């Protein structure tokens, strides 16, 4: 098991018993997430944007338009905090302060490295496709599409996970109350796929779409 | 329809056709979300944490421990960016650049006002309970619990929404490809409720728990 040494920034101070610093736990949370929230300190204050994220090895990758100001700031070296959160359950305790959620989250601190190599960009496009809709095979990217897209990567080096998975934690004197307490798990479930309006006639909905499942629904 | 005037920070520059500045749209997104991501620029860089959020009128509220450093910084007036994101679908296009997600997000910029009034704190506790598990009735909070919790509110005044809801947008020359294109909706679905291990014998699982539904699953 590979453990990341916590830093001033990543050491979990509040409820340290919920912290995890092993790479496997961090990778699993990152792999399950579709989106992250990236925070940057801009001249006019903090800014937090949601964006798709993938992990390959010990890096996470995001991408977008060169006209995206936040991506440009990141590409120019602005320090980032990337947070990924998966809500697993709502937790109903016997008092207001017993209400909670079970969740898994990861925070990564670092600065971006811009991907310039065209072949690596092409591999990243394929990885984003596979992350969003596993099994989907698309036409290869064009050189101008790759050139018009910024890909950034961040090392998973200054990072930690925080996990709450213990359901209800009410003070003992509340246990005798006539109030239900427990958890309701939440799963991200796929609905009925919908064809694109201008889909070429005769193309069936692929099996990997019919069987689409996010990890929490497995 | 009440429209918020966009500012330098909230005007959506990238894909302005996805922007919404009317309060109803912003409120609806905030009301559906269980958690937000709050970003603060700290001395050691940006920091983004997930936390429960509720809306009452034209404010959003978060709460937590006075030992939480980020909440303390917010209470002391640190400017915040609060972002809420709901992922509605994965979008499969015919090329890597046609992959996307349909989503609804809100960004709120502002500084916190700390809630000191004990009666208002008590009302907020009840509102958080109702937001997390609608219908759940709990024992009233104790004075020391209310005193030991920081409640912050932010006005929904410098805010905007961004919505992508148009599924596949492939260039026309891709329409003839033999590649499936479409969307898979994602819904947050409740699983089987689980009683707390030390639940008082004889307490049935309430109807509002058996029928628990997040808005996306309705």
Description:
The structure is a homodimer of 218-residue chains. Helices cover 19% and strands 35% of the residues of chain A. Chain A has 218 residues and is α+β, with helices and mostly antiparallel strands. Chain A has a domain of 140 residues: Electron Transport, Fmn-binding Protein, Chain A (Pnp Oxidase, Chain A). Chain A contains five helices and twelve strands.
The profile of the biggest β sheet of chain A is: 7 strands, antiparallel
Quaternary state of this entry equals homodimer
CATH topology of one domain in chain A: Pnp Oxidase, Chain A
Can you tell me the CATH class of one domain in chain A?
A: Mainly Beta
Helix content of chain A: 10-25%
The CATH superfamily of one domain in chain A is known as Electron Transport, Fmn-binding Protein, Chain A
N-to-C CA distance of chain A:
25 Å
**Counted beta strands of chain A:** 12
Helix-strand sequence of chain A: EHEEEEHEEEHHEEEEH
Largest interface: A-B, 98 and 98 residues
Summed up, the helix count of chain A is 5
| Share in β-strands of chain A | 35-45%
What is the second-level CATH architecture of one domain in chain A? Roll
What is the mean pLDDT of chain A? Answer: 96
Gross geometry of chain A: globular
Could you say which structural class the secondary elements and strand pairing of chain A correspond to?
Answer: alpha+beta
Question: Which ranges of chain A are low-confidence, i.e. pLDDT below 50, for 5 or more consecutive residues?
Answer: none
Rg of chain A (C-alpha, Å)? 20 Å
């Amino acid at each position: 098991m590979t453990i990341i040494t916590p830093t001033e920034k990543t050491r979990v101070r509040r409820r340290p018993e919920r912290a995890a610093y092993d790479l496997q736990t961090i990778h699993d949370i990152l792999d399950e997430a579709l989106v992250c929230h990236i925070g940057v300190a801009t001249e006019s204050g903090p800014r937090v944007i949601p964006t798709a994220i993938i992990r390959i090895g010990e890096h996470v990758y995001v991408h977008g338009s060169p006209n995206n100001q936040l991506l440009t700031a990141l590409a120019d070296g602005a320090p980032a905090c990337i947070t990924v959160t998966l809500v697993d359950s709502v937790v109903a305790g016997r008092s207001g302060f017993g209400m909670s959620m079970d969740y898994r989250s990861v925070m990564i601190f670092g600065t971006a490295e811009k991907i310039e190599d065209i072949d690596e960009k092409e591999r990243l496009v394929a990885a984003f496709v596979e992350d969003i809709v596993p099994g989907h095979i698309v036409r290869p990217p064009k050189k101008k599409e790759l050139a018009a897209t910024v890909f950034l990567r961040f090392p998973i080096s200054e990072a930690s996970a925080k996990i709450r998975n213990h359901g209800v934690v009410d003070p003992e004197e509340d246990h005798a109350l006539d109030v239900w307490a427990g958890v309701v798990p939440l799963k991200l479930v796929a609905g009925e796929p919908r064809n694109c309006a201008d889909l070429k006639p005769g193309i069936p909905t692929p099996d990997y779409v019919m069987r689409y499942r996010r990890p929490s629904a497995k």
